[in-house]
Amino acid sequence: MDRTSGDGAKYLLSQLDRTAHAWNTPTSWTGKTHMGGAAQYPAEVAGGLITIEFTVHAWDLARATDTEATWDTGTLNHTLVVVTRTAATGRERGAFAVEVPATEGSPTLARTIAKIGRDPRWHP
Question: pTM for the full model?
Answer without folding.
Answer: 0.82
